[in-house]
């Protein structure tokens, strides 16, 4: 837009670079969690996740086979084997870059060289770990020490997800919490839409005294903190016997989502063309028919916007679930609450925490990327102008 | 019964119940109460049409009334009363408020909340505006925007886990797995450290102060100028109070510069970030800024697009440079939207609970009002003080509430 005059701004490069930096900064934290959830306990506790993308280099002390594995060839003892895959080795997918035979110089030789110990013994080590050890005297029974610098390629595992979601009898309870969350979210998303749509239609297209006042009240209720509702509603729920079960949460989410739902839908419906509605009225359609046959289908974008909002908000909610959904047997704990509990009890077990968090984040992220258009539209319509 | 089945039944019941209610209530109204036939047909139709809106509104009004409106008054009543041991309650006047004001934790929460209220909306809006402006001009802007927007989908709890991993601390002899400590240990007190830890922060603070003062001055100026219309006593008062806030911010920032330059840094030792008093508040705020920047960006980006092209063309023809175009042409035109974004984030900040609850639970002087209230209500079971704290949150929200209603009414006329 600023380049209307036709010259390419010299600032363009700076813009590209700063946007790239900002994006990297914003994505980095989430990527960290994502990568960590695919690492084993050992890997997480020994190195930062940013190192896991690259081959890890480690220097380890290994031993050749003992005297019992030696064979006599041409008058010298020969031991053959593989340092990497034999017992104690780091595994076949690693490879050796350098090795040494003395602790003073652990990287004295390159892989593929033959090293001499000084008293006639020699050892050849290939980069795949295969070695040939030759000695004129009988080798010690424990085998010869060799120091190798091995590079292990990046290694990721799905084990954390298996452990948290499918392993029978695991104590983290994420699978159950996932179901609880779904149970809370779906009714809490669908029912308010329906109720709000009717109300929004009345506020948009029906004329009655007090309409302006009602709309003002809804705008006011938009910003009322739900914190104020906790105690009175808890008392009310206990009073009428709903208690702290799913029904209470569904009702609470319906109530708390209502102002935004009505506000969004009304603003959208007001903008629908007047002609269609008046024509339908002339043709003898009732208000109910106009609403279900004309308004609802036309309002789909607004309905989708609010559905995404309400879905994200109920899925991600902690406070309402903590107050209105408490079950002494932990049968109804939602994922957010479960994660907070895990943070307390398994604070240092990052493989559990990161996996649990990612399980709960994954669904909203998918919804987000699939329906971003509607979310943006809803945000633009929903912020009070 | 399996909760999933229960949920399905609820959906079915809820949906069919709603549809049934609306359908049959309309039917009953039209066919039986005010039938559109006979001698009174015309009058009946009019009457039915007067009742119908309320049929459509009834469920929504019930939900709004019971779940939002009534609790405000009930909480107010609770904040003025005391629970009696055998059940029931007694009016005690302002005693709960008195007790609350005596608690140091309450004042800590208020102090931190003020800090949150200044830093988070300011940082989110400024960053959002920056990203919106930068991505507006490049081809891969929409991808960049959706990446920065992404944290909006992540729960506060999820974000807390993400940032706890960043702030994680390991003993000094082990590899650090938290990014912040890994970076921190790279500093050794040489000139690089001086540059990054002293000079850059000071420059950032100075930029912040200049921006705040410029912003405040552009708002306050009309009050003193006779040429420009300042628009009423109330608006002048708002403008002046923003000016006062800006001066206070400047004062705080000068203190900040002093502490940045004066603090002894212990290089080479990993820090437990969330226990460093005062600064840990900022580490928590980062989480919310990270989430809210996307929101600000989306709204401001739409506003930037809506600026009439001619104004910018005219500025280019007059030889304005990109910075002048941005600050003198674009920003003034979207000031209204900036205000909307600011107030929306302010409300989010006032309600913020999950982040503090999950990351520190108010320890190490990070308490905020919403978490203080939760603490009182559900751990101390002190409903009086808890309700009083809730009323304080309501009080802080109400100016925005009035402003929103005022604007909405103005727009509808």
Task: Tell me what you see in this structure.
The complex is a heterodimer of chains A (385) and B (413). Chain A has 385 residues and is α+β, with helices and mostly antiparallel strands. Chain A folds into three domains: 12-52, no CATH class; 56-152, no CATH class; 162-382, MetI-like fold, CATH 1.10.3720. In chain A, 54% of the residues lie in helices and 12% in strands. Chain A contains 14 helices and nine strands. In chain A, a hairpin with an 8-residue loop joins strand 4 (95-100) and strand 5. In chain A, helix 5 (211-222) crosses helix 7 and helix 12 runs antiparallel to helix 13. In chain B, 75% of the residues lie in helices and 1% in strands. Chain B is globular and about 95 Å long. The longest helix of chain B has 39 residues, at 41-79. By secondary structure, chain B is an all-alpha fold. Chain B starts with a helix and ends with a helix. In chain B, strand 1 (81-83) and strand 2 (89-91) form a beta hairpin. Chains A and B meet through helix 1, helix 2, helix 4, helix 5 and helix 6 of A and helix 1, helix 2, helix 4, helix 5 and helix 6 of B.
Class derived from helix and strand content of chain A: alpha+beta
> Which structural class do you get from the secondary structure elements of chain B?
mainly alpha
Overall number of strands of chain A: 9
In the predicted model, the low-confidence regions of chain A spanning at least 5 consecutive residues are: 1-7
Helical proportion of chain A? 40-55%
How would you sum up the major sheet of chain A?
A: 5 strands, antiparallel
Oligomer: heterodimer
- Give me the CATH superfamily of the largest domain in chain A: MetI-like
Euclidean distance between termini CA atoms of chain A: 25 Å
Rg of chain A is: 33 Å
């Amino acid at each position: 837009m600023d380049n209307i005059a036709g010259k390419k701004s010299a600032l363009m490069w700076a813009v590209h670079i700063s946007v790239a930096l900002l994006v990297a900064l914003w994505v980095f934290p989430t990527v960290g969690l994502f990568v960590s959830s695919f690492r084993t306990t050992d890997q997480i506790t020994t190195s930062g996740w940013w190192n896991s993308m690259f081959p890890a280099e480690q220097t380890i002390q290994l031993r050749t086979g003992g005297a019992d594995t030696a064979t006599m060839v041409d008058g010298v003892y020969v031991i053959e084997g593989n340092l990497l895959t034999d017992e104690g080795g780091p595994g076949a997918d690693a490879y050796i870059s350098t090795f040494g035979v003395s602790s003073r110089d652990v990287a004295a030789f390159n892989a593929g060289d033959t090293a001499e110990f000084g008293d006639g013994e020699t050892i050849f080590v290939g980069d795949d770990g295969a070695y040939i050890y030759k000695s004129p005297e009988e080798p010690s029974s424990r085998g010869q020490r060799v120091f190798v610098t091995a590079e292990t390629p990046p290694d990721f595992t799905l084990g954390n997800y298996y452990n948290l979601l499918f392993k029978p009898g695991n104590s983290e309870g994420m699978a159950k919490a996932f179901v609880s969350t779904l149970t809370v979210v779906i009714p809490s998303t669908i029912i308010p839409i329906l109720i709000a749509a009717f109300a929004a239609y009345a506020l948009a297209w029906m004329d009655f005294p007090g309409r302006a006042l009602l709309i003002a009240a809804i705008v006011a209720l938009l910003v009322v903190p739900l914190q104020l509702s906790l105690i009175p509603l808890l008392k009310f729920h206990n009073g009428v016997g709903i208690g702290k079960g799913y029904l209470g949460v569904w009702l609470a989410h319906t109530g708390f989502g209502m102002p935004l739902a009505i506000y969004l839908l009304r603003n959208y419906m007001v903008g629908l063309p007047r002609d269609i509605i008046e024509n339908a009225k002339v043709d003898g359609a009732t208000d109910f028919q106009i609403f279900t046959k004309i308004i609802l289908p036309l309002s789909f974008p607004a309905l989708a916007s609010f559905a995404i909002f309400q879905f994200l908000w109920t899925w991600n909610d902690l406070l309402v679930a903590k107050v209105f959904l408490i079950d002494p047997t932990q049968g109804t704990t939602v994922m957010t609450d479960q994660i907070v509990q895990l943070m307390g009890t398994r604070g240092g077990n990052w493989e559990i925490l990161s996996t649990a968090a990612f399980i709960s984040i994954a669904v909203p992220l998918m919804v987000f990327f699939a329906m971003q258009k509607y979310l943006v539209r809803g945000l633009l319509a929903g912020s009070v102008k | 019964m399996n909760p999933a089945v229960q949920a399905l039944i609820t959906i079915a019941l809820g949906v069919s119940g709603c549809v049934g209610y609306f359908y049959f209530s309309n039917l009953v109204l039209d066919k039986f109460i005010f039938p559109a036939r006979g001698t009174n047909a015309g009058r009946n139709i009019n009457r039915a049409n007067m009742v119908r809106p309320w049929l459509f509104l009834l469920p929504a009004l019930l939900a709004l009334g019971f779940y939002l409106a009534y609790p405000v008054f009930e909480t107010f009543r609770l904040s003025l009363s005391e629970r009696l041991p055998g059940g029931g309650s007694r009016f005690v006047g302002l005693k709960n408020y008195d007790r609350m004001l005596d608690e140091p934790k309450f004042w800590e929460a208020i102090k931190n909340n003020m800090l949150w209220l200044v830093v988070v909306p300011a940082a989110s809006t400024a960053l959002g505006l920056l990203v919106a402006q930068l991505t507006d001009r490049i081809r891969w802007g929409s991808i960049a925007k959706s990446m920065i927007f992404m944290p909006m989908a992540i729960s506060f709890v999820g974000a807390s886990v993400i940032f706890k991993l960043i702030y994680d601390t390991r003993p000094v002899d082990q590899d650090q797995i938290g990014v912040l400590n890994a970076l921190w240990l790279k500093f050794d007190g040489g000139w690089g450290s001086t540059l990054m830890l002293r000079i850059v922060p000071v420059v950032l603070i100075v930029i912040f102060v200049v921006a705040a003062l410029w912003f405040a001055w552009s708002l306050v100026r009309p009050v003193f100028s006779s040429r420009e219309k300042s628009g009423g006593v109330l608006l002048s008062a708002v403008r002046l109070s923003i000016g006062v806030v800006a001066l206070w911010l400047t004062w705080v920032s000068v203190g900040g510069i002093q502490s940045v330059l004066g603090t002894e840094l212990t290089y080479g030792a990993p820090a437990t970030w969330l226990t460093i008093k005062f600064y840990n508040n900022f580490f928590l705020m980062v989480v919310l800024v990270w989430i809210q920047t996307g929101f600000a960006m989306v709204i401001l980006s739409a506003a930037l697009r809506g600026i009439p092209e001619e104004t910018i063309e005219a500025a280019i023809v007059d030889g304005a440079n990109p910075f002048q175009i941005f600050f003198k042409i674009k920003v003034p035109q979207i000031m209204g939207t900036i205000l909307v974004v600011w107030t929306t984030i302010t409300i989010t900040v006032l309600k913020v609970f999950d982040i503090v609850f999950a990351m520190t639970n108010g320890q190490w002087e990070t308490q905020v009002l919403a978490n203080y209230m939760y603490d009182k209500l559900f751990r101390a079971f002190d409903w009086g003080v808890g309700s009083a704290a809730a009323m304080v949150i309501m009080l802080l929200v109400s100016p925005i509430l009035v402003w929103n209603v005022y604007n909405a009414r103005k727009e509808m006329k």
